[in-house]
Amino acid sequence: MPDITRRALLGAAAALPLARPALAAWPEQPIRVIVPWNAGGLADIVIRALSGPMSGPLGQPVVIENRPGANGAVGTQAVARANPDGHTLILANAETHAINPLIYPKLPYNPVTDFTPVTLFARGPFALIIRPGLGVEDFAGFLAKVRAEPGKLTFASWGIGSTPHLAMEGLLKQNNLQMLHVPFTGAAPASTAIVSGQVDAMFLNAGPAEAVSRDGKVRILALGASERLSTLPNTPTLAELGQPIEAGNWFGLLGPAKMSPAIAERIAVVVAEQLKPAPMRDIFRTQAAVPTTTTPDEMRKFIADDTARWSSVVKDLNIRLD
Description:
By secondary structure, the protein is α/β, with parallel strands linked by helices. Helices cover 41% and strands 19% of the residues.
């Protein structure tokens, strides 16, 4: 997803004076961003880095509140039911707004009608990692080993229907391969299982993957990014290896339904401006996160397209969770 265009940014900014009555009394209190996962993950780290700089131009503190549970559904539902006054936002990702609606028939929120899109702010590509003792040196060797032992090798994820689960299933389907899925309760226990040799492989956020690979605890075979990362310059992308699969996650902000469009536009402009300075981009780079911003309308379309992309994978796997 390209960075916000200069035309879109200027257009949003130009519209703000016309919406001044809606913004005159906003914000009246701290702006709360609910992160529907545990503290310490990639999404949590980058939004906390961004929240401080956002506070200045908004004139109120931006406070982060972690509210995990049900693959992100607990915190997301809380924002869906919040007052749409612009003081409560959700940090959304592919799981909360593209995948959960496909796998939870009784999801307690509607990802389209219960929210007001604001902006994307980061993309987080995955790295394909394996335990060192697996006995393969590269991606081709990995595919060959999985093919030679159908259904015997294992892969980890942070839950059924999570992005790393579906990304690996997509890779396996494309290559007509089989592995055994071992879901964990989070990225940390899943990656620990790889390091300890309990599980053979997984897709992990590229930043943590790079960190655990430094001392040989895991081997990185490929990146799910559209291009190579500066933190992993010698690691090929899946596209380079002939695998047209985009493996990763995205992170964005949304408000409750009926939140003022003027407020959504104002937040989107502030986020875009705060992502420009080199120190902020360096923070994202060290986490292997790619700054990515959009207008509210662009984000709406992006989520719709992402839902369509995951729909075929979920349908093929016939995943349904109560």
